[in-house]
Write a structure and sequence with these properties.
Blueprint lengths: L2 H18 L6 H12 L5 H10 L20 H21 L3
Helix pairs in contact: 1-2, 1-4, 2-3, 3-4
C-alpha cells in the first residue's frame, strides 16, 4: 500500500466510525477532504494535518457521546473514543512532513 493509499484508508476509517455513530459535525468536511485526496490534490494533506493536530473544532477535539447528539451508549463511549483517538493519531503521523 502506498503512503497515499494508507492516508485515504485512514480518512475512510475515521469517516466510517463517525458515520456509524451519527456524527453531524465533521463528516461533511472529511468527505470533502477524502474527495480531494481521491482527486490527487496534494494541498489537502495540510488540511488533514490541521484536523489531526488542531484544537477546537478539529478531529482531535471531537468526542463522541450521547450528550453531543451522537448514536452511542455509555458502555461504548470509552472504546469508541479510544479508537477515534488512535485513528486521529495515525492521521497526524501520516501527514507529518
Amino acid at each position: 500500500m502506498t503512503e497515499h493509499e494508507a492516508l485515504q484508508s485512514t480518512v475512510t476509517e475515521i469517516l466510517d466510525l463517525l458515520i456509524s455513530h451519527g456524527d453531524a459535525y465533521v463528516v461533511e468536511r472529511l468527505r470533502a477532504y477524502r474527495d480531494r485526496l481521491e482527486a490527487g490534490d496534494p494541498s489537502v494533506v495540510q488540511s488533514l494535518r490541521s484536523e489531526a493536530t488542531g484544537s477546537m473544532g478539529s478531529l482531535r477535539d471531537r468526542y463522541l457521546s450521547a450528550s453531543n447528539g451522537d448514536y452511542i451508549t455509555a458502555t461504548e463511549q470509552e472504546a469508541v473514543n479510544a479508537r477515534l483517538g488512535a485513528l486521529v493519531e495515525r492521521l497526524a503521523e501520516q501527514t507529518r512532513p
